[in-house]
């Protein structure tokens, strides 16, 4: 999920259309979390087109494509390379599965659909609890900048309950079946998250234990704000930022140039593209295009030009000005470009787990990591985990022949770290190779 709306840009047609924009009806009757005879859990969720995506709690994942004889063939991560696994499902209404040679049955959860009000919008949500009558911790899933339905595509809504933790998932305003107008206004989105947390408490009743937020990408700005307005028991931020959206663009441009092997002198030149994009965003797509074209004309023949990426700059470079002027204002509606998250984080008493990707190009983690470490030194209740060799989304990756990153899986400890923190507010276990900072409360 891109923080300033890359997925939204794709969905709205500012760049080449994603398969999600022409989503076919996936075989929804197979969606669910299944327990296999070896005791492991495999989650089956929707994927672009008439395909499915499997995930395991240890981070492995693959894309399932229907084949002959009812077999669904798997490819590794997002690589399109066969991984030798397949799945066979029973008929719709049958909870049976055979995955990678092991039989299994779909888990049964306590599930309640909801419609709840937040400001001027009515949002669609879903509470999913493990079967039983006892108290369980509940995680409210807060979105990134995507336009897609979280209720359709978030696998954590099933993985958490399969691990004994409740989940509340909701479509953000203007997406899925939620009402209201899509916005990137963090305050509005924080108020929506608060409304979702209240609804989760109401629906769960006596079963509510600890309750907090899990937020990815743009949600890293939203969830701490929501927790400051109305306290919760914990906040988990994955691949989010402790800098402003404008500084994110500057950092993303710089990281792309550094990845290309160039030094500070070239970074200084490339930042002209970041400043042009910032001018376009700041003017609500009414100005700044001349600056972008001037930078392109000056540097397009430089060998480093192909490494100019950023979070939004590469889309601006690839999209006609008239299209950007027409569609940009709706795409970036309400985004607080100068939002400084630090005052919130300095004054937030809620225990937080920040999980960052060391090689993140979309939301570079360097300055965010430095700022969080300073807050930790000042005694703030923050735990920081930096995952090596991972990109945005905390995905491990490999490089194609052309140098493109292809996501393969999430780290083995990623989901376990979240469940540990949800249950007890600390990550006191063994997390090999993960750089962890922050005191662990007991």
From TrEMBL:
Signal peptide: 1-21
Molecular function GO terms recorded: carboxylic ester hydrolase activity
Domain of life: Bacteria
Keywords, sorted A to Z: Signal
UniProt-recorded name of the protein: Alpha/beta hydrolase
Originating species: Rhizorhabdus histidinilytica
